[in-house]
Amino acid sequence: MKRAGALVLLWTTLLLIPGRNCDICPAVKEDVNIFLTGTPDDYVKKVSQYQRNPVILANAEKLKNCIDKKLTAEDKENALSVLEKIYSSDFC
To answer: Hey, what's the signal peptide range on this chain (predicted)?
Structure first.
């Protein structure tokens, strides 16, 4: 998997460190799913629920476009597969 994919997995895994309140899992799952499989417009719309700063929204769109260019469909499926294992663990 490419570096970008590995960074996405590392970021998500760090959010799910054992011992944390796992109420965040459904929100993280939805956000990451949109990030990996949605369109740039879908992702920016999701980010805009939390942040209305135009600079942040522009960066979210750039990040999503970068991920779409760098990760293959297989990379995205692999990332989602790993995340499903994390979500279904006893720690989450």
So the answer is: 1-22
Q: Can you count the helices (H) and strands (E) in the chain?
A: 5, 0
pLDDT at 38: 95
Nearest to 80 by CA among 15, 12, 18: 12
pTM equals 0.68
Question: Is the Cβ–Cβ distance between 28 and 12 less than 8 Å?
Answer: yes
Q: DSSP secondary structure string, 20-52?
A: S-TTHHHHHHHHHHHHHHS-HHHHHHHHHTT--
pLDDT in tens, 10-64: 666 655 555 555 556 677 788 889 999 999 999 999 999 989 999 999 999 999 9
Cα 14 to Cα 17: distance, rounded to the nearest angstrom:
5
